[in-house]
Design goal:
Order of helices and strands: HHHHHHHHHHHHH
Number of domains: 2
CATH architecture of the largest domain: Alpha Horseshoe
CATH topology of the largest domain: Serine Threonine Protein Phosphatase 5, Tetratricopeptide repeat
Number of strands: 0
CATH class of the largest domain: Mainly Alpha
Distance between the termini: 51 Å
Radius of gyration: 19 Å
């Protein structure tokens, strides 16, 4: 099982190795005391998660990254988030890979790199991670790093929507509404907006109602 996991996520590990120069700097920050900034409740929660993360619980490594990225009282610790997302990602946690790609795309806590972000999204999407497929579609639709290809972007949005990304369903609905990369079809657009709404995305509900 361990060998299979290494083979499946080999491409991601190679990519993470290429990012180590940036992430080595963040690793020095990851264990720094932040008691002057974190609330006692958050610090206690993270401390408990660090223990299980160190024991090999990759979900808890991801949760630490998410807590640092979310922050509190307007403060965020993206460099620490990138460190723990990396730990989870290199063990095969696809959502962690997606969020790590997002940090690289936005340049939060790491040196901004569309190339690295694109490769994280591409690798995770190929394994079925819906949010990565949506992010990859957005970059393809806008022509970031690659030639703009709205038809391919639409297919990626569809894959992401089927995979459970409410945002992708909205994006795909817009593609059908405008006829970008697909045949213009308001009924199909409304259907995808409805799917997004059913998933709990308010934007999807608003777009659905706008077509009544």
């Amino acid at each position: 099982m361990k060998i299979a996991k290494i083979l499946i996520f080999g491409a991601l590990i190679v990519l993470l190795g290429a990012c180590n120069k940036d992430l080595q700097k963040t690793s020095q920050l990851a264990d720094d005391s932040s008691k002057n900034y974190e609330s006692p409740q958050l610090a206690q929660a993270i401390k408990a998660l660090k223990e299980t993360c160190a024991s090999g619980n990759i979900e808890d490594c991801y949760k630490i990254g998410a807590l640092y990225a979310k922050g509190e009282r307007g403060a965020h610790w993206y460099s620490k988030a990138s460190y723990y997302y990396k730990i989870a990602c290199e063990q095969g946690h696809l959502l962690a890979c997606t969020h790590l790609g997002g940090l690289y795309e936005e340049g939060l806590g790491v040196r901004q790199s569309f190339q690295v972000a694109f490769r994280f999204y591409q690798a995770a999407c190929s394994k079925g991670e819906a949010d990565s497929c949506n992010n990859l579609a957005r970059m393809v639709e806008r022509g970031i790093l690659v030639s703009k290809d709205v038809a391919y972007a639409a297919s990626l949005y569809e894959k992401a929507c089927i995979g459970g990304s409410a945002t992708a369903c909205v994006n795909l609905g817009r593609m059908y509404y405008k006829g970008r990369g697909v045949g213009k079809n308001k009924l199909t657009a409304k259907s995808f907006f409805g799917q997004s709404c059913d998933m709990g995305l308010q934007e999807g509900c608003e777009m659905y109602k706008s077509l009544d």
